[in-house]
Amino acid sequence: MHPILGRPARLAAYLGVWVPLGMLLVSLLYLQGAFGWVEATLVALPLALAYGFLCLSAWYVTGGSPVGRIGAWRNAITAVIASFVSSAVWLLVARGWLAVVGTVRGWPPVTQSFRLVAPTLFGFGFFLYLLAMAASYLAAALEISQEAEKRGLELQVLAREAELRALRAQIDPHFLFNSLQSISALTSMDAPAARRMCLLLADFLRDTLALGSRERIAVSQELALARRFLEIEQVRFGSRLDMAIDAGPGTDSDEVPPLVLQPLVENAVTHGIAHVLEGGVVRIRVERQMTTLVLTVDNPCDIDRPAGRGTGLGLRNVRERLESEYGFDARLRTEETDGHFVSRIEIPLDA
């Protein structure tokens, strides 16, 4: 169905455009001397509205000869032929309408008056149909542009989702690599501890599989995952590793990307606690600051520790996830001062 005919409001607006065009035709017929004002109005205004419906066919003509598929000359020839045929049909309608009005009003035979106004009607109709063709081509071009923009946005969304899936997929292998190394080391030193660590790891992985596929999870769930991870590492480090987790007022129900803290907590243990002889406390705090949710991981570190063998994948992964999900509205900041390494994630609360 024609897009104008499909909605009454559009049809009313479209016919409203043809009313002033009809008055223009009334003026032309009156100035030509063929009719008086009343007669010209009775003839021209209904004919203009009827021609408005006839011009709707331009939409179908342009749909069958799109600009991008045939040459400009073929488009021009198609427009001229369609305008000629449309105007010819309109002349037949005009002759019939003149006969009807003439019979009702008691006018003389319409042949003479029709011959007088036929060139004006034909030229008027030819020009208006060309305008209708141009408007239809413009509407088609806008529709194509909007469709292309829509497809572009859909591709961006798909690319973003694919990127997020890839970033999430990087977390599990990275974590498993370090966890399995720890279990391997424990098997030769403390088999019961290795078994306990395997059970804790299984529980952790079960939770990550359940929550990791979501777009967002509650802060309380994210902190629970971080706690489970630290419990796993406590098996290996014993009393050298302690944890302090604090969720500020009203933050439990706030939402964050799943496992966004895990790489930071892992770094705190692997590159912090592991290099401090007496160990220390990994402190995790979540708080609201104005319109920002701040997640902080603080751990002691040895300023003289050797350069790590890691690839920096964890921090890079967090930064890329934040940028992909929030753009420049979220950020990860890290700093090392006075033997402490602090990682700070800032996420907008209204995201």
Radius of gyration over C-alpha positions, nearest whole angstrom: 38 Å
Main beta-sheet annotation: 5 strands, mixed
Within the CATH hierarchy, at the fold level, what is the topology of the largest domain?
Heat Shock Protein 90
Strand order across the largest sheet? 2-4-5-7-6
Count of spatially separate domains: 2
CATH-defined superfamily of the largest domain: Histidine kinase-like ATPase, C-terminal domain
Low-confidence runs: none
The CATH architecture assignment of the largest domain turns out to be 2-Layer Sandwich
Averaging pLDDT over every residue, what do you get? 83
Shape: rod-shaped
- Helix and strand content put the structural class at alpha+beta
Order of helices and strands: HHHHHHEHEEHEEHEE
State the end-to-end CA separation. Answer: 41 Å
Indicate the percent of residues in helices. 55-70%
Figure out the total of helices: 9
Beta strands, count: 7
Q: Proportion of β residues?
A: 5-15%
CATH class of the largest domain: Alpha Beta
